[in-house]
Specification:
Number of strands: 8
Structural class: alpha/beta
Distance between the termini: 51 Å
Shape: flat
GO molecular function, one term: GTPase activity
Organism: Salicibibacter halophilus
Radius of gyration: 31 Å
Strand order of the largest sheet: 3-2-4-1-5
Keywords: Coiled coil, GTP-binding, Hydrolase, Membrane, Nucleotide-binding
Order of helices and strands: EEHHHEHHEHEHEHEHEHHHHHHHH
GO cellular component, one term: membrane
Low-confidence stretches: none
Oligomer: single chain
Subcellular location: Membrane
Length: 526
């Protein structure tokens, strides 16, 4: 259930064997995660509300996924109530202390990433291992984290467990991943649970077949026991797999690494050749090229600035339609909470108590609907900000990368007393639902609700617009810094193109150095 990354790598000049650096989630990241998990669990918490709320109980759930989400939300609540870490801070500790907190969910749920510095034969060779959130993680952000790391990995090992090898969750994740990167190795752990070698081979064959049916023809299935590997006698299958990685796989990775280095080096040399060729062209041709590049640069700069203009379109549209949508949702909730079966006391006092409780539940339901509505418009604003970022920076950046986060901090904030006072004015006879009193109460309640909804929508719209502009300012600042670097590069480029006698000495020196380094490294370049 733990939703954090763990990186195991060789010690460096700042970290010795057994040191661990633990990065705690930022307040903004934690707030978004709480909102997402709470929403999927039927709640409307954010960080502040979860911290203040009464302790969550593990209610009966219909599915394992629901149970896991609720357990994770409860762990988050316990964690934020303790105030045990500073959000966004990195803590250095020893391996034992890290193992202590990593094993406790109400600590581990606050960890964004742990880097374990560990000296071993395989890490000494430059290998790093990244353990990502698994398929049982409880929200989409955790899955995205795993996918991003897998994309960048040289080898992807998928670990499943013997007693539920290639589960539905495994199949679902691999189905999603195979277009990006199919597993190089499907590792069946806890193979010591097999009754005999025939049963174990049956499970291996089953996993092999499932991989092939899911289009992972090149994936290699490996069975081992991490538990036995830690015992004095060890696990032969584990040892065999490690030996295979350190010999055959290491050799393949080295070839791949050389090929990638060769490609990058050749690309750089080609770029330098292009610069040298341009530098030898007549000045008139270079000036013409400079004018073309100057125009292109200015057009892009103008387009980027246009993409960063404030647009409150989605908020205005939301303001125009949200009142009617909310009142329809509230009407449905009103019918579910206040009906013949919920207000049926034997005397007036009992019925008064029941209708007050029902109205209180109704307003709690209104708060839930309100938070869902805010979450939906916040998602639209995030999509809008993301689209603006893609136009400027391309697909490589996310809002989280740039510390751009959008909150929904406006509550519905309607006290139960405002409706309970109306109920006191009605005659709560046994015929309440049939003599017109119920209809009159509902009319009064929704007249007040409509006024309140319009007022809260206006407050929320102003808050969202202010928040969006603040986040847009962050993006603009990042773009400004990026543009400043690009402007300096552009200035030097134009200076080179318009110089009567451009200095090609640094270019020639760089080319010679790259070729010499390629010879030393055994790389082939043209």
């Amino acid at each position: 259930m733990t939703a954090s990354l763990t990186v195991v790598r060789h010690p460096d000049e700042k970290h010795s064997h057994g040191n661990v650096s633990v990065q705690i989630k930022s307040e903004a990241v934690l707030n978004e995660e709480i909102q997402a998990v709470a929403y999927e669990s039927g709640y409307t918490f954010n960080l502040a509300r979860l911290k203040k709320a009464e302790g969550l109980s593990i209610a009966k759930t219909n599915t394992l996924a629901e149970k896991q989400r609720l357990e994770y939300l409860r762990a988050l609540q316990l964690a934020v109530k303790k105030e045990q870490y500073d959000y966004g801070k990195t803590y250095d500790m020893n391996l034992h202390d890290w193992q202590e907190i990593a094993a406790k969910e109400d600590h581990a749920c606050l960890i964004e990433e742990s880097t374990v510095y560990f000296s071993s034969d395989i890490t000494a060779k430059g290998w790093s291992f990244v353990d990502t959130p698994g398929v049982q993680s409880v929200n989409e952000r955790h899955t995205r984290m795993a996918i991003e790391k897998i994309k960048k990995a040289d080898r992807f090992m998928y670990v499943t467990y013997y007693h539920h090898a290639f589960s539905r969750a495994d199949q679902s994740f691999i189905e999603r991943m195979k277009e990006i990167q199919a597993p190089h190795y499907m590792v069946i752990n806890a193979a010591d649970l097999a009754k005999d070698k025939h049963e174990k081979q049956y499970v291996i064959n089953f996993v092999d077949d499932q991989l092939k049916q899911n289009g992972c023809d090149d994936s290699v299935t490996v069975s081992l026991s991490s538990k036995k590997s830690l015992a004095p006698d060890g696990d032969q299958q584990f040892s065999n797999f490690m030996h295979y990685l350190e010999t055959e796989e290491a050799a393949r990775l080295q070839v791949t690494s050389h090929r990638q280095m060769n490609k990058r080096l050749q690309t750089l040399i080609n770029a330098l050749h292009t610069v040298a060729t341009i530098g030898k062209q007549p000045l008139a041709e270079r000036k013409k090229l400079a004018e073309q590049e100057k125009r292109s640069y200015m057009e892009k700069e103008h387009a980027d600035l246009k993409h960063l203009e404030t647009d409150d379109g989605e908020i205005k549209v939301w303001e125009g339609h949200a009142t009617r949508r909310m009142l329809l949702a509230f009407a449905d909730r009103f019918s579910k909470e206040i009906h013949v079966a919920s207000v049926n006391g034997k005397d007036k006092h009992a019925r008064e108590k029941q209708i007050n409780q029902a109205l209180e539940k109704f307003l709690q339901a209104c708060e839930e609907e309100w938070q869902k509505e805010l979450q939906a418009v916040a998602d639209q604003i995030r999509a809008s900000l993301t689209a603006q970022m893609v136009q400027i920076f391309g697909e490589g950046r996310s809002l989280e990368d740039m510390n751009v986060h959008l909150g929904t901090e406006v509550d519905f904030h309607m006290p139960p007393e405002s409706l309970q006072t109306m109920a006191k004015k009605r005659k709560l006879k046994k015929s309440f639902f049939y003599d017109g009193e119920f209809d009159a109460l509902k009319t009064d309640v929704f007249a007040l609700l409509e006024e309140h909804v319009r007022e809260r929508i206006q407050v929320a719209a102003e808050s969202l617009m202010k928040d969006k502009n603040g986040q847009l300012d962050k993006i603009k600042e990042y773009a400004r810094k990026k543009r400043k670097v690009e402007e300096e590069k552009h200035r030097k480029r134009l200076q080179f193109l318009t110089s009567e006698h451009p200095d090609l000495t640094p270019v020639d020196a760089e080319l010679n150095m790259l070729r010499e380094n390629a010879d030393i490294a055994g790389l082939h370049v043209e």
